[in-house]
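Give me structure tokens for this 485-residue protein.
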Amino acid sequence: MMQRPDESVVHGSRAGQTAQPRDLPSVDRLLRESAAQALLAEHGHTLVAGEARALLDALRAEVIGGSVLLADVALPVLSAKLQERVQERLQPRMRAVLNLTGTVIHTNLGRSLLAEPALQHMLTMMAGPNNLEYDLETGARGDRDSIIEEMLCTLTGAEAATVVNNNAAAVLLTLAALARGREVIVSRGELVEIGGAFRMPDVMESAGARLVEVGTTNRTHAQDYERAINANTALLMKVHTSNYAVQGFTKAVSEAELAGIARTRGVPLATDLGSGSLVNLASYGLPREPLPQEMIAAGCDVVTFSGDKLLGGPQAGLIVGSKEMVGRIRKFPMKRALRMSKLPLAALEATLMLYLRPERLTQDLPTLRLLTRPEAQIRAQAQQLLDAVAQAVAPRFAVSVMALQGQIGSGSLPVDRLPSAGLAIAPVQKKGAGRALDELATALRRLPLPVIGRIAEDRLLLDLRCLEDSAQLLNQLPALQEALA
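Here you go.
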């Protein structure tokens, strides 16, 4: 039987030698292999040929450097590498993960989980045409705000409502629409910075408004606002400091008191709640957050808050308030650039509908369900997982059940702790413990469903508050064991 030239080279006198550039096949020769032909049939010529070319170009540089064995450029080997490259190219960059960090609303891990009705409503609305901007009653063009405005007004007591793509956009749009070219008065203690160095003074500048700081970092009084109001004042603004706390000798002016000043002086009042909630979290044993409906009742003309944090929906910036102020905001040209698309709007509508049945929220809304999981239930789950996880990481690591302190969110109420429980995995050998923990964390992240924990005090901690289905971890333990072997 005749051998192909490349096979005879590999198995003949040059076996075990380093490859030369002439030993690499052409793209066309590689694509004639049966494995490549199967890839071409499944994925088409453009993708497969592009990956074949990239594979051979990368190998050519290594071959010139003298670091590739002849056996590594045989056609069967290259065909397998080509298949791996194609599969890797088609692997989505955005992937589901297991959030075992202990932070329920984790900014880097997608924040709130959407409820099943929201997922189903999105799928239905994306699968075909819908009435995004079409009035089914009149047959005329409609307004996408109408999809959620009535419900938001019902839930908050506001006269009008509109939505944009996130809360930073809601604040920016409010300032631009109501205060461009004029002054906005804010307490110095409320000039917050949120993730990504997004600072309130910078937002003011971007919106074309001029910031007027009043009071001090820890104490601001009503007269501070009153003295700062002048003919060029466009807006009084309150900012809820949900991502930090100033304690000790402090003073702040309430929305109700500030609303009285605003009415007397003929200036509108806006408040930014950041990660605003629509239900009293204290009734579930969680830290209390100010509610949009309370701010409206207190006399605020505009209230802005997020949809993807404590509310438990998609990324969105919700703006509620008086008809006059919301009307001005809605008509401002910037609104079109910041509007929500049909996908998150469908998710928001379905999420808001859950709040019409508040007695069922701890069952239907994943964020609230996870936040209210009993500590005893989480500890029992950790105990059930202990032996299986210990076997998977043995003999290099020891595992124990541990009481943990999680948090509600990395940007929402980050200083408030949630009593929880989980598994603490510690290296048996103290020497090189840091490297061992990094290796373990890497192995967990490389699982088919990546597992994200946190390293603290020479242990890798897996907080189980967000693990409702233990099988998601158990089914991956054989792969973890193999990776650590």
